[in-house]
Write a structure and sequence with these properties.
about 375 residues; alpha+beta; Beta-lactamase; 13 strands; globular; disordered N terminus
Length: about 375
């Protein structure tokens, strides 16, 4: 009899999961979310960002999705839960995961040389896919490396952007593999490789192998012009009461050209950690601290130019480094997997807290719009259970 009761109980649990029923949020977690909600309200009220979208989900409990402020100051259109924000470098985890699907298919090797895909790239025999994913490849950002005078105005959204990267006046910061330095250039090369190997455009491949598997319908490619009225406008803060649209509206291709919503990004993290996009063993590789050629983890092998000595980190920040497409850190003793994004008119943060399986999405349509509350947020998010 007791076994029958146990089987019946398990069947009820499985039925609830299959029907998509979310569990009720615990009072303790609800209180933390209410505190974060209050911080964001104050942020918008104080005009530190024009608008904001917040998303929080605790271990498949009912998600908290809320919109604040204005999406378009010219028309007064408010932000709503389907407003699409530029997510900037939150694109990089998508590029990394798309690349990992090709590795799982046996079409790309994690330690393939860059020369396999771009035979004339300088030091191409010394640069690996692993290094491109982990920012240990040594190639600077293109605006630092000085692309040639014939670089198209829409670079890197142009055809064959690797040709202009390999012709930079300053092609390397350090010997590939020896240090860690965050650079958008590597993720442009990864985007090209995805297209070359798959035979599809980056976005078409992403739709098939990532977005559809996660049930994401609100994540789109931004080519620099409004697709529809759900796209939030981006702003710069001029002073305490005034915003303006940015004049420099760069499009960084597969390093940062996606738009999305908080709800869609939570779906991405859920599908990723539930093993619905890539194997859990692959995700474990991606969310472990990357290693340099000397065997040091990247947080112990940071590159700083001209003998620059950075200030010491705050006491609550124990580690800060990178895996394969994800930033890894430890705040107040709590490990966190995340990525941040900053681009003309927008600021974004995506976090996953393994101990509580909490996903947090912060999207602002103003440059540095999340920053004023970030220190307070860190104290709150580690309390989720």
């Amino acid at each position: 009899m007791k076994y029958l009761i146990l089987l019946t109980f398990c069947a009820i649990l499985l039925a609830g999961k299959a029907s998509g029923q979310a569990r009720k949020v615990s009072p303790a977690n609800a209180a933390i979310t209410n505190s974060i909600d209050s911080l964001v309200k104050t942020l918008v009220t104080n005009k530190q960002t024009a608008g904001f979208m917040l998303g929080i989900e605790n271990d498949h409990q009912k998600p908290f999705i809320k919109a604040y402020g204005i999406a378009d100051l010219a028309t007064g259109k408010p932000v709503d839960t389907v407003s699409k924000f530029r997510i900037a470098s939150l694109t990089k985890p998508f590029t990394a995961v798309a690349l990992m699907t090709l590795i799982e298919q046996g079409k790309i090797g994690l330690y393939d040389k860059l020369s396999k895909y771009f035979k004339d790239y300088p030091k191409g025999d010394s640069i690996t896919i692993y290094q491109l994913l982990s920012h240990t490849f040594g190639i600077p950002n293109w605006w630092e490396g000085e692309t040639p005078v014939n670089t198209p105005g829409n670079f890197p959204m142009c055809k064959n952007p690797h040709l202009y990267l390999q012709a930079m006046n300053k092609p390397f910061l350090f010997q590939p593999g020896t240090k860690h330095s965050y650079s958008n250039s590597g993720y442009v090369l990864l985007g090209e490789i995805i297209e070359q190997v798959s035979g599809l455009s980056y976005m078409d491949y992403l739709k098939v192998q990532v977005l559809s598997k996660a049930g994401m319908t609100q994540t789109l490619w931004d080519e620099g012009h409004d697709l529809d009225d759900t796209w939030a406008k981006g702003y710069q803060e001029i002073n305490d009461t005034t915003f303006k649209e940015p004049t420099n509206y760069t499009m960084p291709y597969t390093a940062g050209s996606l738009r999305s919503t908080s709800a869609d990004l939570i779906k991405f993290l859920n599908a990723l950690y539930d093993g619905e996009i890539i194997k859990k063993s692959s995700l474990q590789k991606m969310t472990a601290y990357a290693i340099t050629s000397s065997g040091k983890p990247v947080d112990e092998a940071m590159f700083f130019p001209n003998n620059f000595v950075p200030p010491p980190p705050p006491a609550y920040l124990k580690r800060y480094g990178y895996g394969l497409g994800f930033t890894l850190t430890e705040i107040y003793g709590t490990p966190i997997v995340c990525h941040t994004g900053g681009i003309a008119g927008f600021n974004s943060i995506m976090l996953y807290i393994p101990k509580s399986r909490t996903k947090i999405i912060l999207l602002a349509n103003t440059e540095n719009g999340v920053i004023p509350i970030w220190e307070q947020l860190q104290k709150l998010i580690v309390r989720y259970q």
